[in-house]
Design a protein that fits this description.
The chain is α+β, with helices and mostly antiparallel strands and 721 residues long. It contains 20 helices and 30 strands. The radius of gyration is 26 Å and the shape is globular. The chain binds beta-D-glucopyranose (BGC).
C-alpha cells in the first residue's frame, strides 16, 4: 500500500462535493477543489481565496472564489470529453499527499485524458496543469482552455464588472461587490502541437480554442499556467497575474513542479510523523498532516486558517477557536512561524474584539466567534435554518460563546511555553491576554465582591445546550485566562518598567488588582461521584441514550440544538466539553477524575462536531483506554480520506475539509500516544502507544531547538538534531 496516495476509481456525480474536498490542493493563499478540469458549477469547482471576503445582498459574508483559471475541456468527433456528460468508460483520481499533486485519468473509449496539476507551494499565486489527451481513432479534436466564470458560490455572486482580455495571456479582471477588491486571474499555455487557434470570449469567460484533425494513436500535450492576484496583494493584480504566468511558462512545467515538490519536502522534514504497524492509519495520518499543512498561511505573517480550510465557502471562511485549540499545536511544535501567524492574526484583530465587547456593553476583548478580516464578526444571530419551517433559528453562538477569548489567551500562553519566545507577547500578545481578562472582569458584572461568581448565560463547546450557567469549561478557561494575565508579571519580571508602562497604556491599574479576586471567586466545579457537572442543572436533564435521541429525529438533517432541538432537554451533548477542558489542562485533574468523567460523558456525546473525538482520545490515552483511543484516533484521522463528517446543520451545508480533525490527529499521535509535553522549558514524553502501532517517530521544534522523538513499545527517546 502506498501510504502517500489517495486513489479513487470511477465517477459519481453525487460524490462531487465530497471528492472536491478529499482531493483538494492548496497552498495557504488559495485552495483548488479536487474536481476535473472541465467541471462546470454543478460539480462545485472553486479556487477559494484566503482572507478575501464579500457579502452579496443580505446573505452571509463568505470568502470569494476566484474565476476558474485552470479550466480545460476537450471534445472529440462531437463528443464532450467531460466526466459529467461524456459517459467515461473509466475514471480514476489520485492525490499524492507527499507533493500535493492531483492527477486524473479518464478513458472515453475513443480518447483518453491524463493530467496532473498542483497549486504551487513555492509560488503562492501559481497553479499549473499538465494535460494530455490521446486518441484511438482518427477525427476532429477541439480543446478549450481558459478562465471560466462559471463558478460555485454558496451566497454569491461576488464578482462584478468583468473585463476579459484575450491574447497570448488570457486574463479576467473583476471587482468584489462589497469592498470593491480588485481580483485578477490569468492563464497562458504551452502546447506541443500545431493547431488552428482562436479565442472565444462571452459571459462564461475567456478561452483559447485549439482545433485539429488527429490521427489514431496520437497524443497531444498541453501545459497550462495560471495565476490569481487581488488588490490586497498588489496594486495592479492583472499585471502581477500575467507576469506570474509568463515567468512560470518561461521556467517550464517541470521546473515549477520541482520547486513545488522541494517546498513540500521541506514541510515534511519539519513535520512528518512516521507511524509504523498499521498502513491504513499511516495513510490517514499523512492525509491529516497534508490537509493541515496545505492550508497554512505561509505567504503571510498575520493570517489564520478557516474552520473548513480552503475547501470552499462553508462556515463563512471564518476563523473559529479551532485555530488556537486544534491547528496551533502542530504548528507550534513543528513550524513555529505558522503558529505565530495564527496568533498575530488575533493580535492584529484586537480592535475588532474590543469593538464587539463594547457592542455588548462590556470592556476588554470579546473575540468574534466566527472571525473574518479585521476581526469582524461573521456569526449571525440566526446560524441555522430549520428543516421543517425553513425559518432561520435564533442561535446564541455569537453572543454567548464567551470562552473564545480565553481560548486565545490559552494559545498565547502555550506559545510562550513551547517556544520560550517573549517577543510575540511584547508585540501585542500580552495586551491581548490582558484585554481578554478584562472582558471577563466586566462580564462578571461586578459581582466578584461576593463569595462566588457565577458566569450565567453562556455556551460551552457543547452547542446543543445554550444559555447555561457555570459551564465548567467556560469557568475554568476564564480562570486560566486570569491566571495567564497575572503570570505576565513574572514572565517580564526582568523588565518591570516595560510591564508597568503596558498596564499604564491600557489604563489597567485598577483591573490588575481585581484579577486575583475574580480568579478565587469563580464558582468551583460541582461534582457527583467524581463526575463534574457540565453546567448548573445538567444532571437534572433527561438521562437517555444517544440512540433514543437519534430515534426522535424526524429528518436526518434536523438540528439537535436550539429551542426545539432533540438534544436540548437531555444529557446528550454535541462534542467534548468537560473532557475537552481535561485534555487542555490535564495537570489540574487526577487520573481518577479524568477516568470517571471520560466514562460518564463519552457515551453521552454525539461527536457531532469534528472537534470532539480528538479530545476524548487524548484523555483516553492518559487513563489507559488505548483501544478506545485508537478508535477515536482513526475516526479523527480518516475524516478527509473517507469524506466523513456532518454535511448539514439544519438546511445549511457545512461540508468541507476538517482542519480541526487534521490537527487533532497530530495531537493524538504526538501529545496522546507519545505523551509529548513542554513544561518549564523541558521537553518530555510519556508514551501510551496503542497495540496497533509499533513505532512513532517525528520531529519537534521547541525553544528554537530541533528534536526527534522516537517511541516504540520498548521505550522512548528524545534526541537533539
Ligand atoms: C462546532 C464548533 C466549531 C465549529 C467550526 C461547530 O460545529 O460546534 O465548536 O468551532 O463547528 O469547526
Amino acid at each position: 500500500m502506498n501510504t502517500w496516495l489517495l486513489q479513487k476509481e470511477g465517477f459519481d456525480k453525487k460524490d462531487a462535493a465530497s471528492d472536491g474536498n478529499r482531493f483538494l490542493c492548496a497552498n495557504g493563499y488559495m485552495g483548488l477543489r479536487g474536481v476535473p478540469e472541465e467541471a462546470g458549477s454543478a460539480l462545485f469547482p472553486a479556487i477559494t481565496l484566503a482572507g478575501v471576503y464579500d457579502q452579496f445582498e443580505d446573505k452571509w459574508r463568505e470568502p470569494v472564489n476566484a474565476p476558474n483559471c485552470l479550466f480545460i475541456h476537450a471534445s472529440f468527433n462531437g463528443q464532450s470529453l467531460s466526466v459529467e456528460d461524456g459517459s467515461p468508460q473509466a475514471h480514476s483520481t489520485a492525490l499524492d499527499y507527499r507533493h500535493g499533486v492531483y492527477s486524473r485519468k479518464t478513458d472515453f473509449g475513443a480518447a483518453c485524458i491524463v493530467s496532473r496539476r498542483f497549486v504551487s507551494m513555492a509560488s503562492p499565486h501559481l497553479l499549473a496543469d499538465e494535460y494530455q489527451v490521446s486518441f484511438r481513432l482518427d477525427g476532429e479534436m477541439t480543446l478549450e482552455t481558459g478562465i471560466s466564470t462559471d463558478i460555485w458560490d454558496i451566497n454569491g455572486p461576488h464578482l462584478f464588472d468583468y473585463q476579459l482580455t484575450a491574447g497570448e495571456i488570457l486574463a479576467v479582471s473583476c471587482v468584489t461587490g462589497q469592498k470593491k477588491i480588485n481580483l485578477a486571474a490569468a492563464q497562458c499555455v504551452q502546447a506541443d502541437f500545431e493547431a488552428e487557434e482562436s479565442l472565444r470570449q462571452d459571459e462564461t469567460g475567456v478561452f483559447r480554442v485549439f482545433r485539429r484533425r488527429v490521427r489514431k494513436g496520437e497524443t497531444l500535450n498541453l501545459r497550462v499556467f495560471s495565476a490569481v492576484y487581488t488588490s490586497l496583494d498588489e496594486p495592479a493584480p492583472a499585471d502581477a497575474a500575467k507576469s506570474c504566468c509568463r515567468e512560470a511558462k518561461a521556467a517550464g512545467f517541470s521546473a515549477c513542479l520541482q520547486s513545488h515538490t522541494d517546498a513540500w519536502e521541506k514541510i515534511w522534514t519539519l513535520s512528518e510523523i512516521t507511524l509504523e504497524g498499521n498502513e491504513e492509519a499511516a495513510l490517514f495520518l499523512r492525509a491529516s498532516q497534508y490537509h493541515l499543512n496545505c492550508v497554512a498561511p505561509r505567504h503571510a505573517k498575520n493570517m489564520s486558517i478557516p474552520a473548513r480550510g480552503l475547501s470552499g465557502q462553508t462556515y463563512k471562511g471564518a476563523i473559529f477557536w479551532d485555530s488556537e485549540m486544534f491547528f496551533f499545536p502542530m504548528f507550534a511544535y513543528t513550524q513555529p512561524k505558522i503558529a505565530e501567524s495564527l496568533l498575530r492574526y488575533r493580535v492584529e484583530t484586537l480592535d475588532g474584539a474590543r469593538k464587539k465587547a463594547a457592542e455588548y456593553g462590556y470592556r476588554g476583548a470579546f473575540y468574534a466567534w466566527e472571525s473574518q478580516e479585521g476581526g469582524e464578526e461573521g456569526c449571525t444571530n440566526f446560524n441555522v435554518v430549520d428543516v421543517f419551517t425553513h425559518r432561520p433559528v435564533r442561535t446564541y453562538f455569537r453572543d454567548k460563546q464567551i470562552h473564545i477569548s480565553a481560548d486565545i489567551a490559552y494559545a498565547l500562553r502555550s506559545w510562550y511555553e513551547i517556544t520560550g519566545d517573549r517577543t510575540l507577547l511584547q508585540a501585542g500578545g500580552a495586551k491581548v491576554i490582558l484585554e481578554c481578562a478584562r472582558f471577563y472582569l466586566s462580564r462578571a458584572n461586578g459581582h466578584f465582591d461576593s463569595d462566588r461568581v457565577d458566569f450565567a448565560d453562556v455556551i460551552g463547546p457543547d452547542e446543543y445546550h445554550e444559555r447555561v450557567t457555570n459551564s465548567f469549561f467556560t469557568n475554568e478557561m476564564i480562570r486560566h485566562c486570569l491566571d495567564s494575565a497575572l503570570l505576565l508579571k513574572d514572565i517580564f519580571a526582568d523588565q518591570p518598567a516595560w510591564f508597568a508602562s503596558l498596564l499604564k497604556e491600557l489604563n489597567y491599574e485598577q483591573d490588575w488588582a481585581l484579577l486575583p479576586a475574580l480568579r478565587e471567586r469563580i464558582s468551583p466545579p460541582r461534582e457527583r461521584n467524581g463526575v463534574i457537572e457540565q453546567f448548573d442543572g445538567y444532571f437534572g436533564l433527561e438521562d437517555c441514550s444517544l440512540d433514543t435521541v437519534r430515534g426522535r429525529l424526524r429528518d436526518p438533517r434536523e438540528y439537535w440544538g436550539g429551542d426545539h432541538g432533540v438534544a436540548g432537554t437531555t444529557q446528550i451533548i454535541k462534542q467534548a466539553d468537560v473532557i475537552a477542558l481535561m485534555a487542555l489542562l490535564p495537570e489540574r485533574f487526577t487520573d481518577r477524575q479524568a477516568a470517571a468523567n471520560w466514562v460518564y460523558y463519552e457515551p453521552r456525546t454525539e461527536h457531532g462536531s469534528s472537534l470532539s473525538a480528538c479530545m476524548y482520545a487524548l484523555t483516553a490515552c492518559r487513563i489507559g483506554r488505548l483501544d478506545e483511543a485508537w478508535d477515536l484516533f482513526m475516526k479523527t484521522a480518516q475524516i478527509d480520506v473517507l469524506g466523513g463528517g456532518k454535511q448539514w446543520a439544519g438546511e445549511i451545508y457545512i461540508g468541507g475539509t476538517h482542519p480541526a480533525s487534521n490537527g487533532g490527529a497530530w495531537m493524538i499521535a504526538a501529545l496522546g500516544f507519545a505523551g509529548l509535553k513542554m513544561r518549564a522549558g523541558k521537553l518530555s514524553v510519556d508514551p501510551h502507544l496503542p497495540r496497533q502501532i509499533t513505532r512513532l517517530s517525528f520531529p519537534v521544534t521547541a525553544c528554537g531547538e530541533r528534536y526527534r522523538i522516537d517511541v516504540t513499545h520498548e521505550g522512548a527517546s528524545i534526541s537533539r538534531q
